[in-house]
Amino acid sequence: MVQYSPALDATFSALADPTRRAILKRLGRGAATVSELAAPSGMTLTGLKKHLHVLELAGLVVTEKRGRTRHCRLGSDGLDDAAAWIDAYRRRMEEQFTRLDELLERRKEMS
Amino acid sequence: MTSHVQHHPTTITTPTDTTIRIEREFDAPRDMVWDVYTDPALIPEWLGPRSRQSEVLEYDVRPGGRYRYISRRDGADELVFYGEFLEVVAPELLVSTFRYEGMSGQGSVDRAEFHEAGASRTLLVATATFASREDRDGMIQAGMESGVVTSYERLDEILSRR
Question: What's the pTM?
Answer without folding.
Answer: 0.66
